[in-house]
Amino acid sequence: MKIKGTSPTMKDVAREAGVALGTVSKVMNNIPVGEEYRLKVEAAAKKLGYRVNSYAKGLKTNHTGIVALIIPSVRHPFFGILTDHLCRVLMKRGYRTLLATTESDMEMENKCIRLVQQHKVEGIIALTYNPDIEIDEDIPFVSIDRFYTNRVPCVASDNFGGGQLAAAKLSELGAEKLLFLRIGSSVIGEPDKREAGFKAWCQNHKIPHHVIHLNDEDGFKPFYDFLENHIIEGKPEYDGIFCSTDQLAVNILRVLEQLGLKVPEDVQIIGFDGLLNYIDYKPYCSSIVQPVEKIAETAVEILFNEDRSKLPALTCLPVSYRPGGTTGDRDMEKKKNGEV
Amino acid sequence: MKIKGTSPTMKDVAREAGVALGTVSKVMNNIPVGEEYRLKVEAAAKKLGYRVNSYAKGLKTNHTGIVALIIPSVRHPFFGILTDHLCRVLMKRGYRTLLATTESDMEMENKCIRLVQQHKVEGIIALTYNPDIEIDEDIPFVSIDRFYTNRVPCVASDNFGGGQLAAAKLSELGAEKLLFLRIGSSVIGEPDKREAGFKAWCQNHKIPHHVIHLNDEDGFKPFYDFLENHIIEGKPEYDGIFCSTDQLAVNILRVLEQLGLKVPEDVQIIGFDGLLNYIDYKPYCSSIVQPVEKIAETAVEILFNEDRSKLPALTCLPVSYRPGGTTGDRDMEKKKNGEV
DNA sequence: TTGTAAGCGTTATCAC
DNA sequence: GTGATAACGCTTACAA
Fold first, then answer.
1. What does DSSP say about strands A240-243 and A268-273: parallel, antiparallel, or unpaired?
2. Which CATH number fits domain B159-291+320-336: 2.60.40.1510, 2.30.110.10, 3.40.50.2300, 3.40.50.720?
């Protein structure tokens, strides 16, 4: 498939306007030029439907106006929202977004990076889980949620702080023994620190706590068994649960139901992400909210930072707590959501 | 911000390999060349970390390998999933996706179209609600969900058929008086036909029915009032509701709760879209399912169709019905979802 | 088969 | 201020 080569060029415009090629170029780039010339050129350009060929321009200037975004998918709401913000922020700065979805496949991730580099993008923002990613040193690169090396700036939520905050909140709301839960294959990125923050807070405050790593095969069984074995007089021994994601939290909610336990009366739960249900824009559960928009803005800002020699290796953005019905602070929640 | 001009060119590779420039070009494009030359060139290219500059290439060939996607956002799950599929299908065909989000702002839509055309994309796939969109005749264009003219091929779900299917299902499941509900500003795209299909089926089958158009200001009040005035002996007169989207359906569910009505015992509800909750991959409600993946595949196929003179102006893809707990067919639903 | 050279549409450097 | 002209990196006849 070829684009019909009929689009007018600067030469055409110059001929039409009866001026020199260079003059047209100047008009197009807002470089001062005699008023009468400018008008002639503008008229000719409009008449011919002229548009600058950004490939020719890019060839000359090495300025393409495109930034690549490499991300597992845009299906998952977190990625979708992040992509949305990034695309908007980039557009505002005069950049277009070249989107590449990888499904977290490492081979795909490297392939995409290679491809977009061919397209002479002016920067790459990537959310990958690839430990040995092939980065070209002389193209600006910002990683999200994944710290590689000091040479590649990384932007992430304050996952450690979020873990601490979750533990603190659960404790503040009356939970006495805390549980941390995560599921899935070993997380190698920043999100790992959620657990670390949680543990640290519990240890510092001498709060009894326990950690369970679920895996995809066994599912929630280990959790179910653990909780069942720790029920005293119909009440669960562990009455505050911090889940590494909202998704896990909501699934845990179902398990607790099966165990005949009430949330938040018997057990309080806090998740992580803070996404809202797209139907009614209500939280899925009480959660540590990631500042998605701020992440997007910061990533772009760092990408375009003038002085790339002195960039922060890791930028952690503050998270916040939002009640969402799975903790004891229901009034606060209703007030915040402005419910009837 | 400029890309460091250090990347090696074909000239560098040619010098390194001790061959002529043209030979390098041939190797890069898999044009037969003496084996020893090929090896020399490949070695030199690898050594220098050479990558073809697709801007120079594009300037020559007018083949950029980029397709633009213009879409309101990727935040909404329907758009996110659609974008995901499109990006994947395009990648499989060797194309990259230039993403532009418009928030359905008409000015933005036209601006984006202008911008991506500058980038010499080889095709545009757009989901817009802009009645007077500025399309360049000589760049392939496919519209999703919005029919413009016979010159612009449009891909959409069979919205009319979906409307019929919803009415038929509700009737089949025992509903005797049907209601159609939609909300928001006048829909100008294909989705309009959901209502038309619904009405047509009801008329053909002599089923009593009613239509309510809600608007954003009054919210669900008119619906609430209508239903309240049509309750006979504690049971709603209208016992089958077709909502133009799942989102509306779920919100209506809440309203019915307030009215003390049971779903699906007192009222059955069918929505439209068929999205799954990202948390547990379960349907939000019984729904007419849009074939999102098929839409993506078809759009790309049409975009790259060899003979663009004989393209279908409108391609309607078949929808299907899926129970989701808001209709009387619960057994079927459980079986389908493979629940415990 | 390999090498050479013209030119794709722009920008930028100069004389004018 | 304006207008030739030489790159930019690559493809592609065409000549060797």
1. parallel
2. 3.40.50.2300
